[in-house]
Amino acid sequence: MPLEIVETFPVGLLGCNCVIVADPATGEAVVVDPGDEVDRILASLDRSRLRAVALVHTHAHFDHVGGSARLAAETGAPLLLHAGDVPLYAGLESQGRLFGFRLERPGEVTRTLADGERVACGSGSLEVLHTPGHTAGSVCFRLDGPRPVLLSGDTLFRRSIGRTDLPGGSFEDLVTSIESRLFTLPGDAWVLPGHGEPTTIAEESRLNPFVGDPSRRLS
Fold first, then answer.
1. In this structure, how many other beta carbons lie within 10 angstroms of the beta carbon of residue 217?
2. What's the CA gap between 78 and 84, in Å, rounded?
3. What is the pLDDT of residue 176?
4. Crossing angle, helix 68-75 and helix 38-47, to 10 degrees?
5. Three-state DSSP class for residue 144
6. 56: which residues sit within 8 A by CB, 6+ positions away?
7. 80 - beta bridge partners?
């Protein structure tokens, strides 16, 4: 039975899309990118009578991981992150100072994520796709079902892509990740990015000015 997106809502000053994915039959849930507003996330889990079994992250920028330590302590759920972004997560407090925020000390990464693995949740799972470019350890999560869903983090946005001018970023790697890992997914796959509005793979492969057809590509 495929997992369901129970709720998605922007959290924090930068409006990171936090997503709660669950198997309603078992009440197990995975929280994707709990960047802030932990009380709101806990209220959503409680309202739907769900138990978090994992906290997963598309990457380790502060707006995507800022609430992770507290949420892990409150729920007991393991904190999962790709190995490529563990150093970035360890420097969470420094990230905050760089952008003028005071952030709590990061929690412990329970274990790292690897490309191709599946994060279990009830009778379903989320597939991990390693998509470096925005950061070295950026990943997307794919949910199978009648219409696939891609949680693309800051790799792919509606008509845009993630910035690559921060430490660990690479425009060439990002374009390669999108074109070789994401644009090979079914065209009707629904894309829910880390910020902003949803889109589809077909729309972005046809209309995104940063990737796809080289004649219209921006850099």
1. 12
2. 18
3. 97
4. 40
5. coil
6. 30, 31, 32, 33, 80, 81, 113, 119, 126, 141
7. 56, 111
Rounded Cα distance, 36 and 95, in Å: 15
pLDDT for 23 equals 96
Q: How confident is the model at residue 219 (pLDDT cuts 50, 70, 90)?
A: low
pTM exceeds cut of 0.85: yes
The domain in which residue 139 lies consists of 4-216
Per residue in 18-28, pLDDT (tens digit) is 999 999 999 99
Report the CATH number at residue 175. 3.60.15.10
Q: What is the pLDDT of residues 106-146, one digit of tens each?
A: 889 999 999 999 999 999 999 999 999 999 999 999 998 88
Residue 146: its pLDDT value, please?
84
3-state secondary structure 62-85: HHHHCCHHHHHHHHCCCEEEEHHH
Read off the tokens for 65: 């991981």
Give the strand pairing for 79-82 and 51-56. parallel
Number of independent structural domains in the chain: 1
